[in-house]
Design brief:
The protein contains eleven helices and 20 strands. It has a seven-stranded mixed sheet with strand order 16-15-14-17-18-20-19, sandwiched between helices. A six-stranded mixed sheet has the order 2-6-5-4-1-3. The longest helix has 15 residues. Bound molecules: S-adenosyl-L-homocysteine. The site of S-adenosyl-L-homocysteine (SAH) has 19 residues, from helix 7 and helix 9.
């Protein structure tokens, strides 16, 4: 694709870009010349020297997203190189699973492009107008580098509206089954690609699921709220725990039950609103040895941060009476907008309001196929606090 026009940054705004931060905010732009929404453009510093090539969309909160700090042509070959560069970070996962995130947007220096693969079937989410326009370059590159069994586009995220994009769901290459079989730590799992949430499965919790399975002792009871297709429950039950899963989404629960069946595990999966279920006393099934709280992001923007903090307070407040003293409360937060420190604060207030204490034993993050370059703090989004209830 041709590079169109140029944007000039205000004085002092080039340094963070040179240091690998990929976003330019509206207020940081000094001038733009001959650029339209959805194109590639040259980015210049205040002295008018070349800084980067980025994508442009005036409608976006971050009108410029950096693709490269080199003055290089953006071609199919460029995407081939980027895809190849993403491979080493995932290499060690092959021993554990056949499925991982192949490309994590800015964290893999491909802003606006998310690609997960499940046992050779690729699921793509396009989050920016420019990446949409660049499809004729990255799609053949993706096929050349990975030889996927199929590629499915599932771009239904709320963020697309802001970019002026509608949702788009279609087969890009071959034909992707609605449900794909994958394996993780020897477990056989169904991924509801077409009907499930996001790309179909939460690959980012892989390490924490595994750590939790190592942590539970045989016979201990676990309440897994926001269980989706059963990830935590399946792993912990195989380790000998007695789990109960709760989620609000019927298709997720159907898949969870089928996942339990095909791995010869017995797990009750209950359809309920987790907030109400905890508040109403967990059907009298408690108190549990351990409780997992893994709610959805809620806060995608900073304005919603307080809503998420309040939601976490509420979950912890109502979970605590259903947790045995000495038990583990795992509180996961997948929103960058609410830091782990603020998450702790919400938990601290909830524990105090209930007259009990919590000790932070561990803090785990997203797994390695969701890279977290420290130059781009927004990439470290998933935090799981392992909090031990006082006696
Ligand atoms: N723990 C899961 C991922 C959870 S994703 C795993 O490891 O795979 C968040 C889940 O919360 C989704 O499955 C969604 O259906 C569910 N959810 C959203 N709101 C809910 C609510 N109020 N009560 C119960 N589940 C809810």
């Amino acid at each position: 694709m041709e590079i169109q026009g140029q944007v000039t940054l205000k004085h002092g705004r080039a340094k963070k870009i040179r240091n690998q931060y990929p976003w330019v905010q509206r207020g940081e732009l000094h001038r733009k010349e001959n650029v339209e929404d959805g194109v590639l453009t040259r980015v210049l510093d205040a002295k008018q020297d070349f800084l980067a090539i980025g994508t442009y969309n005036g409608k976006s909160r971050f009108p410029v997203r950096i693709l490269t700090l080199k003055d290089e042509p953006i071609t199919e070959e460029f995407f081939v190189r980027r895809f190849r560069e993403s491979i080493p970070a995932r290499e060690s996962l092959k021993r554990i699973t056949d499925s991982w995130r192949v490309v994590f947007s800015e964290a893999d220096r491909l802003p606006g492009l998310i690609i997960d693969q499940f046992n050779g079937h690729f699921v793509v989410q396009v989050r920016s107008l420019a990446m949409e326009n660049l499809k004729s370059l990255w799609l053949p590159a993706l096929i050349a580098v990975f030889q996927p069994k199929s590629i499915y586009e599932k771009s239904e995220m709320a963020g697309r509206k802001e970019e002026g994009l509608d949702s788009r769901v279609e087969h890009l290459h071959g034909s992707t089954p609605d449900v794909v079989e994958m394996s993780e730590h020897g477990m056989n799992l169904l991924v509801p690609i077409a009907e499930g949430l996001k790309t179909g499965f939460y690959l980012d919790q892989r390490n924490t699921r595994h750590d939790f399975a190592q942590f539970v002792r045989p016979g201990e009871t676990v309440l897994d709220t926001f269980c989706y297709t059963g990830g935590f429950s399946l792993a912990a039950t195989r380790a000998g725990a007695k789990c109960t899963g709760v989620d609000i989404l019927p298709i997720a629960l159907d898949t969870a039950r089928e996942n339990a069946r095909r791995n010869n595990l017995e797990i009750p999966f209950i359809e309920a609103n987790a907030f109400e279920y905890l508040e109403a006393g967990v059907d009298g099934l408690g108190p549990f040895d351990h409780i997992i709280l893994d709610p959805p992001a809620i806060a995608k923007t900073s304005e919603k941060r307080d809503a998420l903090k309040w939601a976490i307070w509420k979950l912890v407040y109502h979970a605590l009476p259903n947790l045995k003293p000495g038990g583990m409360l795992m509180v996961c937060n997948c929103s960058y907008q609410l830091t782990w420190q603020s998450t702790i604060e919400a938990c601290r207030i909830a524990a105090s309001d209930k007259g009990t204490t919590l000790n932070l034993e561990r803090l785990t993050f997203q797994d390695i196929d969701h890279p977290a370059p420290i130059h781009f703090p927004e990439s470290l989004y998933l935090k799981c606090l392992w909090l031990r209830k006082g006696r």
